[in-house]
Write a structure and sequence with these properties.
Catalyzes the attachment of tyrosine to tRNA(Tyr) in a two-step reaction: tyrosine is first activated by ATP to form Tyr-AMP and then transferred to the acceptor end of tRNA(Tyr). The protein has helices spanning 5-11, 22-28, 46-60, 91-105, 124-127, 132-138, 145-149, 152-158, 164-167, 169-184, 196-210, 247-255, 259-269, 274-286, 292-306, 308-321, 327-331, 335-341, 358-365, 374-382; strands spanning 17-18, 32-37, 64-69, 119-122, 186-192, 215-219, 232-233, 236-237, 347-350, 386-388, 391-392, 409-414, 418-424. The chain is of the alpha/beta class and 425 residues long.
């Protein structure tokens, strides 16, 4: 039995607003619905992932999801609740961004499941042949300036200034909805709560131009428990593209969420059932230090976005810091992940070690990075507190014959928690 879309969203806390009649429409028939994604970057980020999950649930409930890539509207930029006008992108950059976004969307939706198979469309396909005067004559007259000015997203920008280019954005998005309604039988548009004004412009457009009924649904914008914006790390956006945010960094982001945030995020960003989530919450409350919720959240989302192999690499990299890993786990890391794992530890560049003992290397060759003298190094080795590349050092007089990681790094561990990274230059 397929889940009820609205009921599923409600228990997950994913309904902010919807127009009257939306629930009835979805119960009456298989309905086509869409969400727009502007190609402002070559990758979507985890803020976008919340709206992607709307489409995922929509399809799982038996409806037909459409992802609209804004090849045309992306040339203008949505002014909704932005403090300043966006930088306009050139056509080549927009095309590259569109292709990157399409590939990512294909990871989440089923494009071969019969009548509710997903589709990806591009609004440039219908806007590219429109003349300016033609658009104004045939479409601009259906939405008044007074109506457009009344939108909160526009009101806020009037205080700081808004160009005519950005002002027309909601008209273009409204036409998108009309075009999809007329040509693809799309009856509902969804998005984040900041899109309510743009989406309802579309329902009004359809009512006035086609005398039709169309519907709108928005989800709350995901915020942290302290009210701050969700989706950014210290380095900026957390991207879905592995080249922009590595699987290790991605995994770490979710792993480091607070207990309170994790309870909300696991509902929004995973497909776990209500019973599964409540069981995890109970287990977490019994032993909060084990961070059961964070681990389940991080594993589920990393697997969904990056796949099982990258998840396992991210987990191995994480375990290295806590001493729960082997030499083979360390050697399996690529250079990028190795440097990310140990970016905060003391580091030093040295010349390639020639013939010398382990004690000479630790006490002299790397200077005072770890030890102030060979005697101190010798004592620590004798106590069993030193490892190089995850190999325990038992004889300080042995020849230093370790193979560097990635042909250039030595990872030295002193005690349980102190790491040092030495690079050969």
């Amino acid at each position: 039995m397929k889940p009820d879309f609205i009921e599923e969203l409600r228990w997950r806390g994913m309904v902010h607003d919807m127009t009257p009649g939306t629930e009835e429409q979805l119960k009456n028939e298989i309905t086509s619905g869409y969400i727009g994604f502007d190609p402002t970057a070559k990758s979507l980020h985890i803020g976008n992932l919340a709206t992607i999950m709307l489409l995922v649930h929509f399809q799982r409930a038996g409806h037909k999801p459409i992802a609209l890539v804004g090849g045309a509207t992306g040339m203008i930029g949505d002014p909704s609740f932005k403090a300043a006008e966006r930088k306009l992108l050139d056509e080549e950059t927009l095309r590259e961004n569109q292709e990157g976004i399409k590939k990512q969307l294909e990871q989440f939706l089923d494009f071969d499941c019969g009548e509710n198979s997903a589709e990806i469309l591009n609004n440039y396909d219908w806007f590219k042949n429109f003349g300016f005067l033609e658009f104004l004559r045939d479409n601009g007259k259906h939405i008044s300036v007074n109506y457009m000015l009344a939108k909160d997203s526009v009101k806020k920008r009037l205080e700081t200034g808004i160009s005519f280019t950005e002002f027309t954005y909601q008209l273009l998005q409204g036409y998108d909805f009309y075009h999809l309604y007329a040509n693809h039988n799309v009856k509902i548009q969804m998005g984040g709560s900041d899109q309510w004004g743009n989406i309802t412009t579309g329902t009004e457009y359809i009512r006035r131009k086609a005398q039709g009924d169309a519907f709108a649904l928005t989800a709350p914008l995901v915020t942290k428990s302290d009210g701050t914006k969700f989706g950014k790390s210290e380095g900026g956006n957390v991207w879905l593209d592995a080249e922009m945010t590595s699987p290790y960094q991605f995994y770490q982001f979710w792993l480091n969420c607070s207990d309170e945030d994790s309870k909300k995020l696991i509902r929004v960003f995973t497909l776990k059932t209500k019973d599964e989530i409540e069981a995890l919450e109970k287990e977490h409350e019994e032993a909060p230090h084990l961070r059961v919720l964070q681990n389940a959240l991080a594993e589920d989302i990393t697997r969904m976005v990056h796949g099982e192999d990258d998840l396992e690499t991210a987990k191995k990299a994480t375990n290295i810091l806590f001493g729960k890993s082997s030499k083979s786990d360390l050697e399996a890391l690529n250079e990028r992940t190795l440097l990310q794992v140990f970016e905060a530890v003391p580091q030093k560049e040295i010349s390639a070690p020639e013939s010398m003992t382990v004690t000479d290397f630790l006490g002299d060759h790397i200077g005072d990075l770890i030890f102030k003298s060979k005697g101190e190094a010798r004592r620590m080795i004798k106590e069993g507190g030193i490892s190089i590349n995850k190999e325990k050092i038992t004889d300080g007089n042995a020849d230093f014959d370790f193979n560097p990681l990635e042909n250039k790094y030595f990872l030295i561990q002193k005690g349980k928690k102190n790491y040092y990274l030495v690079k050969i230059v």
